[in-house]
Amino acid sequence: MIAPDDPQNDIPDDFIEQVKDVLENLYDIPYLQRHALAAFINTEAASAKRLQGQTLRRKILELLEYLSPGVSVNFRSPQARLYNLLHLRYVEGMTVQQAANKLGISPRQAYRDLRKGEERIAMLLWEEIHSEGGTEIDELAANHEEIEMPAYSPKMSRVNINSLVLQSLKAVSSLAELRSIAVAFSEAQSAAFFYSDPVVAQQIITSVISHTLQSIQNCELGIAIEEKADKLHLILSFDHARPDGDSVILDQATKTLTSKLGWVIEEYAEDARHHVAVQISSQKASILVIDDNEGIIDLFKRFLVGVECQVIGATDSGEGIRQAKTVKPDVVFLDVMMPDVDGWEVLQILRNHESTRRIPVVICSVFNDPELALSLGAEQVMSKPIRQENLIAVLQNLGIV
Length: 401
Prior knowledge:
Blueprint: H1 13-24, H2 29-33, H3 46-49, H4 52-66, H5 78-91, H6 96-103, H7 107-131, H8 136-143, E1 157-160, H9 161-178, E2 182-186, E3 193-196, H10 198-214, E4 220-228, E5 231-238, H11 252-261, E6 264-270, E7 273-280, E8 285-290, H12 294-303, E9 309-314, H13 317-327, E10 331-334, H14 343-352, E11 361-365, H15 370-375, E12 380-383, H16 388-397
Parallel strand pairs: 2-4, 8-9, 8-10, 10-11, 11-12
Antiparallel strand pairs: 1-3, 4-5, 5-7, 6-7
């Protein structure tokens, strides 16, 4: 690997901006999954392709650690500044002002050094991709255009809360030991399942437990699962003096992911113990069917009984476009023979609008013209008459169920 200070590496500004974008969205796995740089993750199996976002995140973190000067270097020394700024800003979620204060430098200096750090990581990634003989990256340098990834929906599935917590506890076991904290987990007695993106849900739970451990020491942390009002609650509790208004500090990435899933995190004192409660909302994949035949919409609903998803119907093109823009479904099934505005035009409208262009569209028609459908931006084609096994196969292929 070429040393970070090597001046011969002239990296396109577009590429540096893409690396910066990854850093700014480091914990938004669904976003990274469809990011332009994920295209360069060498995965062939379908299951591996669903992990491209995680792989991209891990690669950027590895390159960040390459800049680490080592533990023997003073935290505020110039040699450690780039690494510490990047880590404080993008891993710990501090503002530039907060990071600058922590390092004892001016915000202006912090912005300059952050840019240098972003350029270093971009250079390392650029060199690594080139060393693997990638041709796509050369096209990116020549055209200076963003690579559009195929539309991607998070992998929604039934998730066992007990399994997620146990996996998180493995990840934080060393941290708990370091801070002399005994962790007691009371698993849910019933089958405690919810519907969500397991990758994002795992990250949130691990982060909440980790940050709670970092705020206490020399005590026991109790973790329990409770069911209240048909919702699951993950309760972390401990005996620890907390000043009024003092709370567990969560990083901005965790707050953002929590909000996206519709989860709620609150803290309260009860029975002389401090509690951190995570209210877990179960999500369902949304499927929009645009077809002037209401019987087709009903058929989708019958075929998907027992599948964790919500079917939304629209019997005219205008309503279908409006629903796509407001609901932002995980997938759209679109008929071609629609009154007023036909399906081909609807497909182009969805592809050209910023809020809908990443939603996968499946053409569902008696006309079997996959080449035209794909050229206009459809993700797949499903012929009528609709068969249940074909519908389920399409949804599984898209990662919806």
